[in-house]
Design goal:
Blueprint (H helix, E strand, L loop, with lengths): L9 H5 L7 E2 L3 H10 L3 E6 L4 H11 L2 H10 L1 E6 L4 H11 L10 E5 L5 E5 L13 H14 L1 H15 L14 H11 L16 H12 L7 H17 L14 E2 L7 E2 L2 E2 H13 L3 H15 L9 E2 L2 E4 L2 E4 L7 H4 L7 E2 L2 E2 H18 L2 H18 E2 L2 E2 L2 E3 L2 E2 L6 H18 L2 H17 L13 H5 L16 H16 L2 H11 L3 H6 L5 H10 L4 E6 L4 H8 L5 E5 L1 H9 L16 E6 L2 E2 L6 H9 L3
Parallel strand pairs: 1-3, 2-3, 18-19
Antiparallel strand pairs: 2-4, 4-5, 6-7, 8-9, 9-12, 10-11, 13-16, 14-15, 16-17, 18-20, 20-21
Helix pairs in contact: 8-10, 9-10, 9-11, 9-22, 11-12, 11-14, 14-15, 14-16, 15-16, 16-17, 16-19, 17-19, 19-20, 19-22, 20-22
């Protein structure tokens, strides 16, 4: 029975014709495993994953192996991009069995969903000490049949350990940012740039945090300058390395070599959105423009929203090639089919792109980028909202059954707020406030939670993880909803938003301080909290000189609005804009700290002086 043919996920559909009897994630698969008293193979990947393609061709398309698998297991195929919470749960479980985490992720569980063995790619034949996938299946089957008590006992213990809650410390979150800076500097690869050895990832959340840390006043010199130099040095190295496609502008997911060569060629929306933000914050318009070109020409869907990724594989002169397309010059590429795009629109990742485009537009003076953000936001709001609930993913108007997660609410809310700040359109801020308020309503005692609760299949089995800020490649839902809440605090002055952000981040402050490369976005959010409440409003007709000064202001809330737009913000429940008017028909700047605004100024030199003396 072909159960994946009608899936929204292109990744699931790519496995629909396998001889493996794949089932989608959900209750039915576990019920079938319990009925047959067999273990479950939970196989997780995504459409643009190279080794997922390889294993699909080598093993999951093998009729003999599929027959063995179907007879002794129930097989579930999952798109990690649709189900990030499921992926996080089983990735955490897999870390007990292998240090080499990645995708495809193949986890073997009891019919109750509890993991008892896991691995990643397995070759079709034994290779360099690694067993074949058939040998893995045989060993798991033998353990299930001959050592059942041991398997179930260890699986139950691991499941209990995974869901043990993280207890927050008493009092506000406090971080020693000098220690964070020292760790970042020690982790830099001084020979080739970036962080750590091979494989080499961009780790965009860490770069963004380092940019903010290097521009803040929490460090003294020379540490402050050293961190700023580190961030800019990292961005410069990546821009001219093998990680970036100089023709189409996008960045690849990672390089397999320490010197940034031999990349894995998939290009992800989340990487490119965050790197756009970073290059814009660093003032590098050339590289930022290249990323925008990639987003607009390749990932953008007809609706105006963005697909999730572009594949690493394509066909060159009829032969399958991993990355061969990217070795071609622009003219040669025109004669070859481009790697496929996963057109699945992920709500959270689009939020990252919306916010990055809006911020880059503001910082670099590119209004057309804000229009791209506006179109994407309108498309996502039109397709991903069902009443006050969000959808996780859609494809060509079809909704995925996967539930929205905290990252969807947090990333979209933050992106909408940054778009409202850039365009001075309060409707986006109102929509963002609804998302944050809904997460607060779903929680208890001022905490954030996902409306509708966690994934129901995980929850029924007691496998839904507690709040997890883990963020290697992109920010966690916890960090993003906290930043969105802080922006709302700065726009409304309502303490509940700041308190909610503090409550969300406090449990992870000590962990983030000890592991800054793993928790960059959480640290950036904690750093933002130290200066929450600053805003710069330019009210009235355009004034290029004032706007040029404002563009470089180290403040998160920088809004250029007409008097009518300011009044609309105030009427929509954002009192920061109340009674802000242009003086004598000229653009007027209001610099506010702690919701107390200085006397308005109208000259660029006066604004520059005011910013230089701001706390």
């Amino acid at each position: 029975m072909n159960r994946l043919a009608d899936a929204v996920s292109p990744y699931l559909r790519s496995h629909a014709d396998n001889p493996v009897d794949w089932r989608p994630w959900g209750e039915e698969a576990f019920e079938e495993a319990a009925r047959r008293d067999v273990p479950v193979l939970v196989s997780i990947g995504y459409a643009t994953c190279h080794w997922c393609h390889v294993m699909a061709r080598e093993s999951f398309s093998d009729p003999d192996l599929a027959e063995y698998l179907n007879e002794r297991f129930v097989a579930i195929k999952i798109d990690r991009e649709e189900h990030p919470d499921v992926d996080s749960t089983y990735m955490a479980a897999a870390s007990v069995f292998t240090p080499n985490l990645g995708w495809p992720l193949n986890v073997f569980t009891t019919p109750q969903g509890r993991a008892f063995y896991a691995g990643t790619y397995s070759p079709p034949s034994p290779m360099l000490g690694h067993p074949s996938f058939r040998q893995v299946l045989q060993a798991v089957d033998e353990a299930w049949r001959d050592r059942r008590d041991e398997v179930e006992r260890s699986a139950a213990g691991l499941a209990a350990a995974l869901v043990e809650p993280v207890l927050p410390p008493e009092g506000p979150a406090a971080v020693d940012f000098a220690a964070v800076a020292e760790q970042l500097l020690s982790y830099e690869d001084r020979e080739h740039g970036g962080f750590g050895g091979a494989p080499k990832f961009p780790i965009a959340p860490v770069v963004l945090m380092a940019l903010r840390l290097g521009a803040s006043d929490v460090l003294h010199e020379p540490a402050r300058g050293a961190v700023a130099d580190l961030a800019r040095r990292t961005l410069r190295t990546m821009a001219y390395s093998g990680l970036r496609d100089p023709i189409e502008g996008g960045f690849f997911r990672y390089a397999t070599k320490r010197d940034w060569t031999e990349p894995h060629y998939e290009r992800m929306l989340y990487d490119n959105a965050q790197l756009l933000r970073a290059y814009a914050e660093a003032g590098n318009e050339e590289i930022a423009a290249g990323i925008v070109s990639f987003l607009q020409s390749i990932l953008r869907r007809p609706s105006g929203a963005f697909g999730s990724a572009q594949d690493s594989e394509s066909y060159i002169d009829g032969e399958r090639s991993e990355g061969g397309y990217y070795a071609l010059d622009a003219e040669a590429r025109r004669s070859q089919p481009a790697p496929a795009v996963d057109g699945k629109v992920l709500t959270g990742w689009n939020g990252l792109a919306i916010g990055a485009l809006a911020t880059a537009s503001l910082r670099l003076g590119r209004p057309e980028w804000a229009e791209l953000a506006r179109t994407a936001a309108d498309a996502v709001l039109a397709s991903a909202r069902q009443g006050r609930r969000l959808l996780r993913a859609t494809l060509d108007g079809r909704a995925s059954p996967a539930p929205a997660t905290l990252e969807d609410y947090g990333m979209l809310a933050r992106g909408l707020l940054e778009l409202a700040i850039t365009t001075a359109e309060p409707g986006y801020a109102v929509a963002a406030r609804e998302l944050v308020d809904d997460c607060l309503s779903a929680g208890r005692g001022g905490a954030f939670a996902v409306p509708g609760g966690p994934d129901s299949t995980l929850a029924r089995r007691g496998l839904a993880l507690p709040s997890d800020p883990g963020e290697g490649a992109y920010p966690s839902g916890t960090s993003e909803i906290a930043v969105a809440s802080m922006l709302l605090f700065e726009l409304t002055g309502e303490d509940l938003y700041l308190q909610a952000a503090e409550r969300a981040l406090a449990p992870f402050a000590a962990l983030a301080e000890s592991r800054p490369v793993s928790l960059g976005a959480a640290l950036e959010a904690l750093l933002r909290m130290r200066s929450a409440g600053a805003a710069l409003l330019l009210i009235g007709p355009p004034d290029p000189e004032l706007e040029d000064v404002a563009r470089s202001a180290p403040i998160d809330i920088v809004v250029r609005a007409s008097e009518e737009q300011a009044a609309a913000f105030a009427e929509s429940g954002f009192p920061l804009f109340a009674d802000r008017a242009a003086r004598d028909g000229r653009a007027t700047a209001y610099l506010c700290e702690g919701f107390v605004c200085r006397l308005p100024v109208q000259e660029a030199s006066e604004l520059r002086t005011a910013l230089s003396t701001a706390a």
